[in-house]
Amino acid sequence: SSVDSTAYETAYYQYIENNCANAIRGFKDYLAEVDRKVYPGVFATQAHFYMGECFFASSDYLDALKNYEYVINQPYSIYSEKSLIKSTRILFSNRNFAEALRHYITLEEIAQFTENAWEAKLGQMRCHYKLGNKEAAYIVVKKYSKTSNAMNQIV
Description:
The chain has helices spanning 2-16, 20-35, 44-57, 61-72, 80-93, 97-110, 114-130, 134-145, 150-154. 77% of the residues lie in helices and 0% in strands. With 155 residues, it is an all-alpha fold. The protein starts with a helix and ends with a helix.
């Protein structure tokens, strides 16, 4: 609806103006309004992604992760890959290696950019190692070493 669009666009304008505090407030208001309706908001995925970006920029990684997880759990979109990248980094740094591994595997499957596919493989190797799955880490290394320029990426 046009109300849906206007509420989202107002918050998005704050985001592109680098005013994250107002953008977060606007996106939260938009999502609260959407929650009161029967249908999901047309811009809910975008709102969660941009809130995640704002929270990440301000080092509020827990709230960033919550918003990225929302995006990841939606059908694939242009926001999926970046949400997976950011969420895996947060999860890994928080030592949640099992969940990070799950996301790195998904990232490898959907990665559109070579550097993200490499990060996914390297992340899988590191997660397996941290989880004590040294055999699985070795298998990923073997798979990774077959990729062109892989050794340069590992070093």
